[in-house]
């Protein structure tokens, strides 16, 4: 075991976990510590902010989607050459799916597996002493965990803080600091969560301001002293295998949701990743073996993608004899057309028989467990895939028949969702983002 850490978690979403996490990361990095980040669960936006705050890659740790060998292999990446791991939770500390013990996808599974004490972020707006009861419940709920202390967020005044701390004094849980209610601390958001790190204006200045607030309002020495546990020495061979030796990956503001552990696994196996930008009307390099279109925000750039003639022609030429795969946004671009939020329909690549729309928003969210219908880029027939779906777009075309589907899909609890995704020739795609795969 190595790389002691902490897990920044909260009783519920929107408590300020990301604000506190980024503030801690940047403040401790400014002290000269080698800080490494991790994100519990399938979120693909926060790790890019972690990287900006620390200067090093951040990885997802997901106890549902990742089996123990993969989970430990990714945790090993997190802890390499680290003085401290700062992991960020998702949703509430114990929120997950109904699954086998230690495999629920909850933050608590990760904290327990690696022995990381929990720094509990309490949004105390609208509460005072009652916040202590919530914290005490979190401390008592799961005996596997240790709550190192609490950070009070959205404190309204000195009097408000005194009232909250009076309640916490009865629990024995240390207060590790407090942040005031400040709209200026909130990072910009859009429909899938935070605006991407690469698009956030003045990100470095924002991170430095958060670090200043952490130094002023948090007990950084106590938080460092509370760190514990460590990452297991997982085998690098458990990381995802590359789909080819030279992989063309779409990378720009429309295509950016490639899980860091996927990229790390590909590189560890010796594969080359060659980025290209569809928004700059670039085609996938013709000397690559495989083309991968990650998710992102194509609905915000549909007009530019429709007008990117070199990209579309080059993609079609590539797909004539080489594999192409698209995830979520990439899947939408591989289809016939995309209807944007204004109801305007834009032609897409036309490589898969699907048309999608963002005009009528409907949330699709959750883990997906899939079995491949046929041999392909993602593996042989019956390969088990685990991924995650999070989007507001819908399919205007009918659900695929088995002959053209990518996989048969169920949710995390085993409910059959039917056939999903498409395959045609060398081209495949689906709305779910691949996290892990297992042989048939």
What spatial form do the alpha-carbon principal axes imply? globular
Placed side by side, the strands forming the largest sheet appear as 3-2-4-1-5-6-7
| Strand residue content | 25-35%
- Number of alpha- plus pi-helical segments: 12
Q: Would you count the extended β strands for me?
A: 24
Radius of gyration: 22 Å
Content-based structural category: alpha/beta
CATH class placement of the largest domain: Alpha Beta
> Which CATH architecture of the largest domain is right?
3-Layer(aba) Sandwich
Q: How far apart are the first and last residues' alpha carbons, in Å?
A: 32 Å
CATH topology of the largest domain: Rossmann fold
Mean pLDDT: 94
Structure description:
The strands form five sheets. The protein has a seven-stranded parallel sheet, with helices on both faces. Strand 20 and strand 21 form a beta hairpin. By secondary structure, the chain is an alpha/beta fold. Helix 1 packs parallel to helix 2. Helices cover 28% and strands 25% of the residues. About 1% of the residues have low confidence. It folds into two domains: 222 residues, P-loop containing nucleotide triphosphate hydrolases (Rossmann fold, 3-Layer(aba) Sandwich); 200 residues, Class I glutamine amidotransferase (GATase) domain (Rossmann fold), CATH 3.40.50.880. It starts with a strand and ends with a strand. It has twelve helices and 24 strands.
